[in-house]
Specification:
Shape: globular
Largest sheet: none
Number of helices: 9
Helix content: over 70%
Radius of gyration: 20 Å
Strand content: under 5%
Number of strands: 0
Structural class: mainly alpha
Order of helices and strands: HHHHHHHHH
Amino acid sequence: MDTLLTEVWKAWHSHNGWMAWNLFLASIPLALSFWLFRSKSGLHSGLWWIGLAVFILFLPNAPYLLTDVIHLIQAIRRNYSVWTITLVVIPQHLLVILTGFEAYVLSVINLGEYLQQRRLGKLIFLAELITHALCAFGIYLGRFQRFNSWDLVAQPSSLAKSMIHDLTSKGPLLVMAVTFVVLTVFYWMMKQITLGIMIRMRHQRSGSAASG
């Protein structure tokens, strides 16, 4: 029993570092989306445009967590017991991956609400597709080329060279295309679930307010 508890403790804490960091990066565009797209102010100051640029740069960090499934596969291949894998490793990794992707879903939903408020609802679907495409490119740069969002400032020349090479090579383009499809499908599914929960919560609030 003590051996099992020790193994569970080790499995739980051995992945906390990258999980916490990746979730933090995913929370940045989510927080910015509420400020940029949910604010009642119609004025777009210079600070707003800077925030939008940061939002675009950091948004791929949220769906990037889908690729962290490789860490789950690596963890399963370790010499953990079946109980540890089933009750700790798999739930822990899936929770982090889904939380990060939900941050992406909410961020894009907020963008859609922003367009809707400005009577640009017809552009929501196109904006979503463009967002998925940009994020697929960003995910490729992060997972395979190991670039970070801040490398646009830290090492712009290396990033530019890599971008040109990747956008003119069949292999990277194929990976980006597959990633785009995965993002589009997963986003659509999670969006329906999220909107359903949001509608239900609104009905409950309106019902509580009416009864009060």
